[in-house]
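A favour, since you know our C-alpha cells better than I do. Go ahead and set the record down below.
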Amino acid sequence: MTDLIRAQPLVLAAYTHTATTAIDAVDDDVTTYASAWSAFAGSTFSPSLSVPSDKAPLVRALLDRLTALDREPGLLAQALRDLDADGDGALTEADGIDAAYLQLRIRNQVLDPAALTANDQFLRDAAGTLVTVVRDGSDGNTRVLKLNVDDHFELLETLTPAQLQAILELYGLTGVDGPLHIVAHGLSTDTAGITSAANNVADQYDNQGIDGATVLAIDWDAGEGLLDWDQAHQSAKDTGDHLAPLFTAIAASNPDATVAITAHSLGNHVMLRALSQMDDPIEPGTEPFTVDYTGVQPAIPDDAYASDPDHYGALVSGRIRHLTLTLNTMDTALMGYEAQEPTEALGDEAADAPEIQTLLARREALGLTTDIVAHDSADGLGHLGIDPGGSPLVTSLVDEQLDRISTGRPSPQTQVREDVQALVPGRVGIDEVFGAPEMQDYLRDCQHRGVDPDPAEVARIRRELVMDEVEEYSDYGD
C-alpha cells in the first residue's frame, strides 16, 4: 500500500519553524526597504532624477509563495498526528484517507490556517462513502471515479450544496484540469458494467491524447433489472431529481467546465432530470452552464420535453449545446418499455416522427446543434449499450463527442459514420463495416496523428469490406 506520508512529525514541524522564521525576518527587511523607498521616491531632487520602479511588491509576492510552500511540511506533520489511525508513522488508505482528500486539506489550510473544522471529518466520511477512485491517473492515463448513488442515496439527500461542492472539489470533479465526462447506465447494467464502460471511455480519451480528463460513472440503483422494472423506473427519476445539486455545484465551482454526458436507456431519466432542475449560480448576464449530451436509446417518453418541461426541458434548452440521440425502431427492449408504460419511447421513434421533428425545430430555433442517429444495429437487441467497448457504433459516438468537446467543432468522424450507415446492401451494416479491424485501425491512426479521415481511404476500406461480405455470402449460398 502506497504511503501518502511517512515521516516524523517533529522533524517536519521543525523544518517549517526554521523556514518560516527566516522568511519572516526577510519580510521585516522588505517592510523597512519599502518605507525607505517610499521616502526616496517622494523626495525632491535638483536636478530631477528618474526614479526606477519599486521592487518591494514583487519581492513580497515571492515571499508569500515561499511561505505557503514552507508551511506545508508543518501541515503534513499535523495531518500525521490527526489521521494516523494505526500509529505506524505513515498515512495510507488503511487510515481511511486518500491523496485527493489530503491535498485538499493541505491546500485549504495553506490559504486559511483556521480552515480545518469539525465539518472536515463529515466531508471526509461522506466523500469516502459516495466516491470511489477507480483509476487515480498517477500513471498519466485518464482518471476514472464512481459516484455510489446505488448504496448511499440517503446520504446524498443530507448534503448541503456547499458540502457537495466541497466533495466535488476534493476529488477534482469540477473540470478544472480538463473535460469531465459523466456516464449513466440503464436498467440492466450493474456496478461492474458501469465501471467497465467508464474505463473504456477513459481509454478513448487516452487514445485521442486529451489530457487532464476525468470520467465519472453514476452508479444508480436499478434494482433487480428486468425483474424489477417499476422500482428501476422510479429510482431513475428519483436519482435524477436528487442529482440536480451535483450540476449546480459543478457550475458554482467552475461555470466554464467542459462537461460531456453519455447516458443509456433509463439513465437518460437520471441525467435529463438533473440537468433540467439544476440552478445556474452565476452572475446575471454571463453564459449559462452547458453540456454536450449523447442519449443512447433513451427510455423516456418521446414528447417528455413538451409534456414535462420541468423535468426534461434541458432537451430543448441551451443547457445542452449539442445533442446526439440514437433511435432504432426495432429496439426490442424499448418495445418492452412501451408495454409497461402508457407512452411511446423516444429511443425507438422514427427520425421523421413529429416528436423528433419538433425537437429538432425547437433546438434549431435556439441555434443549438443536434445529431439524430437512426440505425438498425443488432447490438443488444437493437438497444445498444453504455459501454463503447462492446459496440462499434457507441465507440464512434463517444469518439465524435470527444472530438467536439476538445476542438469546439464538429467531428470529422461523423461523416465517416454517416457514410457507413448509408451502406448498401443492407445486410452489410455498421457493425460489420465500422467495427471491422481495418476501419477501426485506420480511424484510430487518424486520431493519433491528429488528422481528419480521408474520405477516399474510407471508401476504399468500405468497398473491400463489402466485397468480402458479399463473396462470403455467395460462397455460403453455393
